[in-house]
Amino acid sequence: MAVREERDLALAVAVARRHYEQHQAKTDIAEALGISRFKVARLLDLAHEAGVVRIEIVEPDARDGRLSEDLRARFSLEHVLVAPISSTAPDVRAELGRAAAGLLGRVLRPDDVLGLPWSRAVHDMVYALEALPPVEIVQLSGALVGISEDSSSVDLVRRAGRMSGGGRRMFFAPLVMPDAAAAEAVRRDPAVSGTLAAADQVTVAVVGVGAWAPGQSTIYDAVDEDCRQRVSEAGVVGEAVGACFDARGELVRTCLSERLIALSPDQLRGIDRVVAVAHGEGKVEALRAAMTGDLINGLVTTYDTAQALLGRA
Question: The Sugar-binding domain covers which part of the protein (predicted)?
Answer without folding.
Answer: 66-310
